[in-house]
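--- STAGE predict ---
source: upstream dedup step, 1 unique chain passed
mode: sequence only
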Amino acid sequence: MHIDSLNWKILKCLQLNARQSSAEIGRQVGISSPAVSERIKKMEDAGIIQNYNALVSPFEVGYQLKALITLRAFMGMLKPFLEKVKTYDEVINCYRITGNENFVMEVILKNQKHLESFIDQLIVYGETKTQIVLSHVVKHNEVKPLKK
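--- STAGE serialize ---
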């Protein structure tokens, strides 16, 4: 599907606030509410818009720590870890990566003891490295058009 400049404007509006009405988006981009709805539907059908989510602050609901944990899988443990990582409540994002490590996980934890017990579960699958997140520098930045 071709994403023209109008679709990019709609995507920008949705990325800033997906709860905006089609009428509000239409006012911002200069087209009618039904035209906005039709364009959004086409982008959903094409897989460009994948989902609408609520962002929940882990700290406001009681988690004390956020960490990035990399894992370098032991021989024969890559596939078992691929299945196991999906079951951990602590993992909010996990990426398979290139380089010396195989995975990087973004995890939320109650406290330092929780971090220790979580790492104890991971070391069965490979060698880990942990970095504690102090703050967000860039948070959920919007996807922008490719520059030509």
